[in-house]
Write the structure tokens for this entry.
Amino acid sequence: MHRLALSTLTLVMLAATSAAAEERVVEIIGPGGDGKGNQLRVPRGLARDTKGNLFVVGAQSDNVFRVSPDGGITQMIDGSGDGQGHELKDPREITVDAVGNLYVAGETSSNVFRVTPAGEITLVLDTMGDGTEKLGHRVVRPTHLVAGPDRSVYVSSQNSHNVYRIKPDGQLEVLITREGDGQGNELDRPNALLADPEGNVFVAGARSTIVFRIAPGGEVSVYFDAKKARPRVDLRFANDLARDAAGNLYLSANNSGNVLGIAPDGSAAETFPAKREGRFLGAPLSVEASPKGVVYVARMASSGVWRRQPGKQPELFLGPEDLPGGEKGLRIPRGLLLDPKGFLYVSSGMDNRVFRVAPGARPADPVPTPEQAQEQKDVRAGEQAEPAPQQAEPGVEAAEAETPPDA
């Protein structure tokens, strides 16, 4: 009887937890993509336009989907690219400009496409760059791209060590090459990229400790150098950049396992440390920041999204147990996107799903009623009174408990 009562109580509490998850976390798109045979595999970058449409890139399905506010799903581009022989392969990131044009970069196809709201697809950048033979002007492995306030789109090309500007009229301009600021501070494998509302562009290299700032007029300067920071901070393999309304930058670093907060005066501190209570929290990938400085980071190894509010310690914001129906589908969260209403969108790379998470704290475990608390107490007392199980006889192996298959 006591075991049956515990099962009933557990089911009630699990149902309450599941209901809370249903309200807080919603699946926006899954492996089936648009339901018309166009699948979503390994979603990564996320973007949003002013009409509330969400865009999701599938890194291994070589496509981009648009999810409208009413839930309608449309494939905007696939691996055939523009249909004229220019293919899209291994897209990682996307961005949308102020008039709703979508831009997507193919990492291994080394190109960038523009897709208008009407669906017209144009190749705007390829491996030849601006077409000149100048050193550092080719495009090899573009990994990040962001839209600026003037509708320009900026592209960091990792293996060619440069950043391109695609102007609204399609003209191309190289903003920075491997020479960095030209004063001995090099840009090595540009990866993390951000454009602020004033038109400044920030870029950090995967193999350097420097964040460069490119002013609207094109002047390049060192904005931050981890090797020269006091106190010293660790920065290895810059991954992503975010910014709050006060101008603080947040830089995730894959190999050092941390997220740095960089103030406008150049001082820096760890917003998320690599370890907490001696436990490595996992490589941080995407990072997002609200205007008020609430910072979110997707951590690969811990399969979760962490949040830090100003003046507080980091906390787990989304874990596998928070998903609708108790699903365990949050393996390697890749992309994050925070919308103006505070909803956070999370792409789960290994589960081929994108979730929307409502603002606010994670729901606490349901608090049992007095009757349920007494029931739990009675069950525990009954279990303690039961005799201990007999040990297996020598030479006879004890039967192993059945283990449910992985979800």
